[in-house]
Structure formats: C-alpha cells, structure tokens
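Quarterly update from the structural biology core.
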Amino acid sequence: MTPQQRLNALLELVSDRGNVSITEIGEVLGISAATARRDLATLAEQRLVTRTHGGAAALGAGYELPLQYKIARQAEAKTAIARATAALVSPGDTVGVNGGTTTTEVARELGKSERFIRADGECGITIVTNALNIGYELSVRANVKIVVTGGVARRQSYELIGPTVRDTLDGFALDVVVLGVDGLTGQYGATTMHEGEAEVSRHFASVGRRIIVVADSTKIERSTFARICPLDRIDVLVTDQEVPSSFAAELVVAGVELVVAS
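Predicted structure, tokenized:
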C-alpha cells in the first residue's frame, strides 16, 4: 500500500465511522501506532479530520471528501459502470459529463473506445464537461472534441460552477448527459453534496435529450443535501449491483431503465 493509498483508506475509515482510535486504525489498516499518528497529523494539517485524544473524528456528516481521496473507492464498480455507460453512447453523439470519480471513468472509457475512432481522422465524439480534470485528460485524445465550460473552479471536485456554466450550456443541445450523483432515492431523486454542483447538473439535464445517471451501489437509496432532478427526469440508471426491490419498483413507476453493469 502506497502512502497515498494509506491516507485514502484512513480518511475513508474516519468518514465511515465518525470517530476512530489509534488502536482501531492499526487493526483495520495493519499499520503501527506511530504511522497512524503521522497519517492523522497529515490529514489534520489539511483540515480533513479533527484530532481527538487517542484518535480522530470526521468533520461532520455533510462533509465532502476531496476528489483525490475518492478515487480508490468502489474502483472496480466504477470501471464496470463506465464500460456499460459507454455502450449506451453512439458514435457522433454530443455527450455532457459532470464531475466526479464515476463520470471521470466514463469519460476515460469514451476517450479510449475504438468505436469513436474515425478512419478519416475526424473527431468521433464530442464531450462537454465542467470538470477540469476530465477536460485536461481528454485534451490529448485526437478522436474527442472536448469542450470545457467556463465557471469558477471548486477545489474539492475540480468542477467549474456558477452562472458562466449555465450561460455556456444554454448554447448547446446534447444527445446524452451523463450525471454522477452522491445519492439517488424515489423521494428526492438525484442529489449531491454541494448546491453549486447541483445547479450545474440541473443545467446539464435541461439541455440533454437523454439523461443517464451513473451511481455505484453505495449511492442507491441515499439522499444528500442538494437536489438535482426528480427520478422521472432520468432515462437510464447504470449501477453495479441489483437494487432493492422497493427501489426497483420506484424506477419502473418513474420510467427509468435500469442497467446493472457486470
């Protein structure tokens, strides 16, 4: 385990449990007490956890982990979701993609897929995104026309937010919009942690002909602070596991197609 992977795992442990002791950290991660203390000090310096006597506490129930600390979470599930989502996109489509680890995997899959490589050397797919990391990564792909919206950068997620994003998106008509979310329920629909990102995702949905939500099983039947859109605004949900029967029934009523990636 690399130091970054260890920090990821430690931050996830604190986030999931709320409070952890040095002893718990050592038992779960298999590291010494001295290493655990050093890692907690590193995370505390970055204001990602709060040090307590003999351990650490999460900053709060609504705290959002920075993107770089989310990358390792549900990695295999997100890769499977990305493959299944890319299969729903046709060559020549214009695709809107918001920020997040799952949508980043989708963008990577679209960027490397041979289905979108044209013999004449022209771009086989257009991707519109408000995520700086996605724009940077796909800018070297000759088969992808990448369009990055304007806006104010949010360091937690590398996403651009604000009215400039809305103004940019108002000039587009997108064939497909792929939305990453932090929660999905029948009552509140698609939700996310930050109201600015929710607003951007709503704008993406407003200019998209087909809306695909990508969410691993940890997001299903979970709601977070800011609402994006109701369930019946979504055309397809791509996830990695079968959903509970009660939620499956809600998807049917809302007219949402369920795709379970394998």
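The two ends are 27 Å apart (CA to CA).
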